# Entry
Amino acid sequence: MEMNDAARGPRPHGSTAYDRGTRATTPGLASPKRHKFPLGVYARAGIHEFVDLLAIYDCLCDRTRLRLLHLLLDGPLCVCHFQEVLREPQVKISKHLAYLRRNRLVEAERCANRMIYRLPATRSPQLAANLACLQDCAREERVFRDDALRLKKLRARFDAGTPDCVRRPQAAALR
# Structure
């Protein structure tokens, strides 16, 4: 017998039908498994490693985000550079970079009139291990090799109009 909401008692803030174990979708359609609590609950409980690992894997489950992270292994880049290398629209790249930034997998700073994205200087062991794995796996995939080749050609064309923080990533890292 199904209990009604009043019989269940109070629910934690932000809970959904998924939290109660019932389906909130049309019968017959598969519904995704959801976490019992929002990720913020785990962070407040002091389980930071769990949140970091989940954030990393959530970010790595998209091909475009993997390509962005792979390019950033070579140094900081502007959105316009990602556009040229990945051959994707600016809106798509910006949304993925915002997602990566929200999950602390990339950092951003304004340099002249551009937003420059880079990998964090201090990385958790989980992020460092996953980036090393990405670097190794990228050698096998043609799309990553093509991206790296286009990036190499792009970096060769950088001129005086390109901000120092992109043109000379080592100098920017020392600041």
User: Anything to note?
Assistant: Residues 142-157 form the longest helix (16 residues). Confidence is low (pLDDT under 50) at residues 14-37, 46-51, 170-175. The chain is about 55% helix and 5% strand.
